[in-house]
Input
Amino acid sequence: MRMRTPALLHGPCQSQRLTESGGLKDPETMNLLITNDDGIYSPGILALARVAAKFGHVRIVAPDVEQSAMSAAITSTRPLSYRKTPLGEFEAFRVNGTPSDCVALGTHLWERVDVVLSGINLGPNVGNGIWHSGTVSAAPRACCSDAAASHSVRQ
Output
């Protein structure tokens, strides 16, 4: 199984999270929200959380089941629920919704989110399939929430 690595996306919505030199703020004070489209128990999300923990405080909010190919879908026909879930050494929550739902809920429930990471994806996000990826679509949702965003890309 080949997993992809995350890459940070910068845009105008993240400017207040950057230092004057263009780097991210002090890692000790950064809050990093992690999600994916493969589900809370995917091995990629725990691997990403362990690396991200070197850069700040990590919270995981991810779908309770696989949500691949959900693109930027949101849940509007039923109430969302979330449940605290043991996942390694991290504060983690599983949500009965899409990756976009997870980002919206995670940024709403946490006082401040500086960076959103999405991945590590189990499958490839290449070609026209990238438009359907829930992992990739979590990044623009993070921009709507005013947090720096990342998604898994092939390098």
